[in-house]
Each structure stands twice: as C-alpha cells, then as structure tokens.
Amino acid sequence: MRRKIKWKKGKEVKNWVTPQFKHRIHDAAAHKCVMLCYKDPFAGQDYPHYNSIEHYYEPNVDFLYFEDSEDLERIIKDVLQNFDDPKYKNMVDSAYNKVLQHTTAKWYEDYIVPLVKRGK
Predict the structure, then answer these.
(1) Three-state DSSP state, 70
(2) How far is CA 66 from the centre of its chain?
(3) Does residue 75 form part of some domain?
(4) CB-based contacts of 57, cutoff 8 Å, min separation 6
C-alpha cells in the first residue's frame, strides 16, 4: 500500500518519494559481494517511482531481493552453502562489471573532458 509522506513541519509531498540511493551499493559491487536488497513497495515500479538500485543494477542478475526475515535467512543460507555456484559467481561478476561503468575516471571522461573541449 502506498501513502503520501508527511514531513514533521506539515509539508506534504505531492509525488511519491523513493528511497535515496546509497553509494555503499556500488562499494559492495566493487568488492564482489552478493548484494541483498529489501523488496520495498518501490521495487519493479517505473521511473521515477522505482527502487533506486534498479537504476544501476538488475534484480536476479546483479542482486537479490528479499521480502521478509524468513526470506532473507533462506537466501543467506543458500549463498553460504552454494557460494561457488555459477549463479552467484555470475551475479557478482555482472554487478562488478556494471560498477566499473560508474568510476570517477569514467565520469571525468564522459562529462568534464567534453566540456573542456567545448571551451567551457
């Protein structure tokens, strides 16, 4: 169920607000971790009302969603027992390859260098 968010001072947000993306997601991918993410009401929704991890990574390809504590426990046990399974190795490698697209050097090359070349 979706509901509007009210701020303490009474300001009401007219549009849905999605959770803020945390950089530690990229850190986890860069360190080749299996990423687990809580499947909140924004998961699988269209932009701009989607879970922000989905902007960079794909569910079941780069990370796994869990829905509750039992689901999380089941997934963790499976990862620990089957960490060498190609399913998890491919997931970790896929996320790692995607995080390489978001480095400071890449950002510099994509955004700063073109501005300098245009003389700005």
Answers:
(1) helix
(2) 13
(3) yes
(4) 25, 29, 35, 63, 95, 98
Total structural domains in the chain?
1
Kindly report, residue by residue over 61-120, the tens digit of the pLDDT: 999 999 999 999 999 999 999 999 999 999 999 999 999 887 788 888 888 888 888 875
Q: Which residues constitute the domain of residue 66?
A: 24-117
Please count the other Cβ atoms lying within 10 Å of the Cβ belonging to residue 62: 25
Could you tell me the pTM of the whole model?
Answer: 0.71
Closest CA to 3 of 45, 41, 29: 41
Q: Cα–Cα distance between 51 and 69 in angstroms, integer?
A: 19
- Look-up of token digits 């399913």: 87
11 part of a folded domain: no
- Helix H or strand E encompassing 60: none
Question: Alpha-carbon distance 112 to 106, whole Å?
Answer: 10
Q: Determine the Cα–Cα distance for residues 44 and 56; give it in Å rounded to an integer.
A: 13
